[in-house]
Amino acid sequence: MDQATNITDASQTQRQMRAVFSSAAIHRVQLRHFILFDVLPALGTLAAVASLPWLPVHPIDIVLFLALWLVTGLGLTVGYHRYFSHRAFATSKPVAGLLLVLGLMAARGPMVSWVAMHRRHHELSDRDGDMHSPNLHGDTLTGRLRGFIHAHLTWMIRHDYPNVARYVPDLLRERDLMRLNRSYYFWVVFGLALPALIGGLVQWSWAGALTGFLWGGVVRIFVVEQTMSLINSICHLMGAQTFTGEDHSRNNVWLGFVTWGEAHHNNHHAFSNSAAFGLRWYELDPGFWFIRSLGVLGLVWDIKLPQEAKIASKLRLKA
Ligand SMILES: [Zn+2]
Ligand SMILES: [Zn+2]
């Protein structure tokens, strides 16, 4: 039997596998994660703002917030999304491991679960089974509002869990990555402890450790969470549909920079394996700038980009 036949057989077996699992134990884990990393960071952010008269922000807190927002955001968009989910470029094991650690620190769940859910999102985008589509709750105003809240937040409380053997067999074979992926909670705690330590040392006080923890840890987790949620909600509801396709994905140029490039979401659904989400000069894409910089340094290679002819052929309004 030749290699091509083997690959066809493997992908056929994958398609025949059960797609999702659902059980009380799985839903308990999902609820716990939602409370820990969605509810608590929101409450912590309120507490950080409310305590400003007593715990003012020091310049180091702003630096910690911005630095950790940037690197954990890049861990998600470049690591979890463009590399692990879509293999939009190739890299070495150490760089893949570093991207994974940065993504784990963002507290958006272990990478394997995130990627499995994301690949299922692309498979079924805005159709039955897409676990965070905002478009499956009816066309009335209340239906659209319910859809927005579901896609932005509440889907995370309880949802089907994709079968990782079907969706991410390539990742399951990489033992080192799997070992790192299992240390998810360690890296989340590390991402909270690091700004506390730096803030405490720079200000040389317990109050400095507390504000470092709050702004570089808790508030940063909340902002990153809200940013990624915007892609599921807003970017499947409103914005420009530059390219033809069967889903409701949209581009929101105004959100490009603050979402590390993720908001060019219609581009992404049209060319899901592209390392660049911004395809025009004004579609700011910090995630791709980072990939290109790593490419210049020789740390990543085989960076995938769609050909101009392919881009032109998929344009909704042809010039
Ligand atoms: Zn999408
Ligand atoms: Zn994707």
Features:
single chain; 319 residues; mainly alpha; two-stranded antiparallel ribbon; 3% strand; binds zinc ion
What order do the helices and strands come in, and which of them pair?
Blueprint: H1 3-16, E1 20-21, H2 24-50, H3 59-85, E2 90-91, H4 93-105, H5 111-124, H6 141-152, E3 161-162, H7 164-167, H8 169-172, H9 175-181, H10 184-203, H11 206-232, H12 265-270, H13 286-296, E4 300-301, H14 308-314
Antiparallel strand pairs: 1-3, 2-4
The structure holds zinc ion (2 copies).
Please tell me about this protein's structure.
The protein has helices at 3-16, 24-50, 59-85, 93-105, 111-124, 141-152, 164-167, 169-172, 175-181, 184-203, 206-232, 265-270, 286-296, 308-314, and strands spanning 20-21, 90-91, 161-162, 300-301. The protein is an all-alpha fold and 319 residues long. It has a domain at 23-242. The strands form two sheets. Strands 1-3 form a two-stranded antiparallel sheet. Strands 2-4 form a two-stranded antiparallel sheet. Helix 4 runs parallel beside helix 9. The longest helix is centred in the first third of the chain and has 27 residues, at 24-50. The chain is globular. The N and C termini lie far apart (48 Å). The relative contact order is 0.13. The model has no long low-confidence stretch (mean pLDDT 94). Bound molecules: zinc ion (2 copies).
Strand residues, percent: under 5%
Helical residues, percent: 55-70%
Spatial separation of the terminal alpha carbons: 48 Å
Task: Tell me the total number of β-strands.
Answer: 4
Number of helices: 14
Provide the spatial order of strands within the biggest beta sheet: 1-3
